[in-house]
């Protein structure tokens, strides 16, 4: 048997709106998600694979707009030599009957919706064992039937499922839906292609999550990926390669500060050195430790100076404590109403008898007062 090569991807979430981000960035993120399809096709061709397996959540909801699903079909159908095999996930389950009936009716010959659990021979000697989601919360392990699926013992067996191998719900309320981490072994699978977790995760020698091909949150850093899988023969371990597909780079950095340190220099040291690449970079910096009023103002000025270089950039100072020095208060004013206000805020910020939220609010107000005056003088 010649080696069988395929692409494993999942969680495309086509049609996601990205609420909470600036309008111009939302448009770019939405378009990048549609471009995933072309990038996956490019990855398949460069990997010399004729099949792309999508393990659920192709769409972000059960009611994507007509342009979203029709343009997705057009992109998948643009190269008839590539076969797309997809199952519904928890975001676009089979309960979306109107979506999937229209999708199937207009699918080109190389796009295959797997809406039942029967094994499918996708190439001679290669069987795909699907586990589509009938509804958002199925209430059971949808891979439980796989050990009982009979195929030619000389053929490759590839599972395709969407779900978690660990329960993150409160009080284990969804434990019955968990996919056993050893499912590939118990079902005699050569490879189990999973979707649901958006990170690139190896569960076992034969079981992987590919990560979403276009990152969509700071939870998983870097650019999106898919997996190129090579199966030499039944029983052999798969060869797995991580292939880049994402356009946008997401990163979250911690910036620890101490009084006397140049906060602006420390921030600049975290930034990507290639300024041109920052346009496709979403970066969130979480400052921690302690810094004086002057240092915090300098940090804010440095952040403002580079913000426009990035697709998205923010500095979170909620965990950064304020070191209040007499020189900083003198910078505000040496007397009068402003100095009186600054002294009162300092007292509240350093009063251990007050609630921590109250102290933080006072410190934030003092920082804002200092920043306003510094900006006005500049």
CATH superfamily of the largest domain: Metallo-dependent phosphatases
- State the CATH topology of the largest domain: Purple Acid Phosphatase, chain A, domain 2
Number of domains: 2
Level-2 CATH architecture of the largest domain: 4-Layer Sandwich
Could you explain the architecture of this structure?
This protein is an alpha/beta fold and 378 residues long. It has two domains: 4-244, Metallo-dependent phosphatases (Purple Acid Phosphatase, chain A, domain 2); 249-377, no CATH class. The chain has helices spanning 23-46, 66-76, 97-106, 183-186, 263-270, 293-307, 326-332, 336-349, 356-377, and strands spanning 4-9, 51-55, 83-87, 111-113, 120-123, 126-131, 156-162, 191-195, 200-204, 207-210, 225-231, 239-244, 249-257, 281-292, 312-323. A six-stranded mixed β-sheet has the order 4-3-2-1-11-12, covered by helices on one side. Helix 7 crosses helix 9 and helix 8 (336-349) runs antiparallel to helix 9 (356-377). The model has no long low-confidence stretch (mean pLDDT 91).
